[in-house]
Amino acid sequence: MALFDLPLSELREYRPERDEPADFDAFWKKTLDEAAGHDLAPDFADFDAPLTGVRVQDTTFAGWGGDPIKAWMLVPEGAGRVPCVVQYIGYSGGRGLPVDHTVWPAAGLAVLVVDTRGQGGANIYHPGSTGDPHGGDHPQAPGMMTRGVLDPEQYYYRRVFTDAVRAVDVAASHPAVDPERIAVAGISQGGGIAQATAALQPKVKAALIDVPFLTHFRRAVEITDSFPYQELVQFMSSLRDSEERVFRTLSYFDGLNFAARGRVPALYSVALMDLICPPSTVFGAYNHWAGRKDISVYPWNGHEGGGSRQRDEQLRYLRELFSIG
Question: Domain Acetyl xylan esterase spans what residues (predicted)?
C-alpha cells in the first residue's frame, strides 16, 4: 500500500462534478413505488442463540419484487423501545451468525442485520441466506458488479438498494424499536448501501458510512486495479462498445448522487491507503453530502479502515445524537 491518491489537503476540498441523469429522482420514485405494491410481510421468528441479555429473531421480509430477504434482529432484553441500527454487509458477505453482531445491543441499541441478495455463498466467515432469482440478458464478469449493467432497470443494485430501503420499514415496524431513532450503517459495499438508503428513505435519522464502495465509479475504475471495481473494467475490456451504456446505468447508482441528497447527520470514515475504495471517491461523496457531517481519517490504513476504533466512535456518535443512556 502507498499514499497513491490526492494529498489530504486536496481531498478535503475535492468535490467532483456529478454525472446525474435528468430522471434520477423519477427513476427511484418509480422503483420504490413499485416495491411498495408488495406487502412488506415482516416475520420475526425467535431464534435460540447462545447469548444472554439479547433477544434474537430470524427475520424475513419482502424486498424488491416481493422476493424474500433474510435478516437478523437483535434487541437488548428488557430495554423498552430503543434506537435501531440497520446494518448492511460488505461485498461477497452475508448476514453471518447472531454472535457476529452483539456490539450494538451491548450498547443499548437494536440492530437489524440485512442479508445482501445473491451474496455470501462463498464467504466462510459471513455466509448468506438470501438468493437473487433475477439475472440479466447479457454476459457478465464474475461477481455482482456487472449483473444487468447495460440497463438501469435490470441492474443488480436496483434490487439491493430497494431491499435496503424496505429493511428500514421492517426495523420501524418492530415493537421494540423507536421509529424516530433509526440509523443505517455499513462498511465498503455496506457503506455504499447505507449512503443510498439514507438519501432514499425518510425514516432514516442518521448514517454511519465507512469506506463506501459504489461511489464515484468512473474515478475508481481509472485509478485502482483492485476488485470489485475491476469487474467493470473486465466487462468493458471484453464488450468494447459498452462503455457509454455502462456508465449511464451506473449514474443511477453512484454514491455521489445519493450524497447530494443526504440530509441527515452522517459520520463517514476514510482510509488514505485504501486501494479498494480510493480516498478521493470517499471524499467526493462526503464533500457532496448535503446534511450535517463528520469524517474520521485513517492515514495509514487500507480498506480495513478504522476497525474497532471507528465502531467506538460510532457508538459515541449515536449515544449523543439519540440521547442513549
Answer: 1-320
pLDDT confidence bin for 120, thresholds 50/70/90: confident
Residue that the C-alpha cell 480495513 belongs to: 304
Task: Name the nearest CA neighbour of 314 among 280, 277, 273, 269.
Answer: 269
Tell me the DSSP string of 111-180. EEEEPPTT--TT-SSS----------SS---SSSTTTTTT-TTT-HHHHHHHHHHHHHHHHHHSTTEEEE
Q: What number of other Cβ atoms are within 10 A of residue 206's Cβ?
A: 24
Whether 302 is in a domain gets the answer yes
Cα torsion through 91, 92, 98, 101, rounded to 10:
-20
Assigned C-alpha cell, 222:
481509472
Does any domain span residue 181? yes
Q: State the residue range of the domain holding 114.
A: 8-321
pLDDT per position as a tens digit, 291-319: 999 999 999 999 999 999 999 999 999 99
Residue 206 lies in a domain: yes
Q: How far apart are the first and last CA of the chain?
A: 40
Distance CA 163, CA 165 (A): 6
Tell the burial category of 26 from Cβ atoms under 10 Å away from its Cβ (0-12, 13-18, 19+). exposed
pLDDT at residue 205, as a whole number:
98
Task: Tally the domains of the chain.
Answer: 1
Catalytic residue numbers? Answer: 188, 274, 303
Nine-digit cell string for 298: 485513517
Average pLDDT across the chain, whole number = 95
CATH at 177: 3.40.50.1820
pLDDT tens across 208-260, in order?
Answer: 999 999 999 999 999 999 999 999 999 999 999 999 999 999 999 999 999 99
Q: pLDDT tens, 269-290? A: 999 999 999 999 999 999 999 9
**In this structure, is residue 155 part of a structural domain?**
yes
Give CA 248 to chain center in angstroms: 21
pTM for this structure? Answer: 0.96
Helix (H, G, I), strand (E, B) or coil at 107: coil
Query: Under a CB-based contact definition with an 8 Å cutoff, are residues 74 and 114 in contact?
Result: no
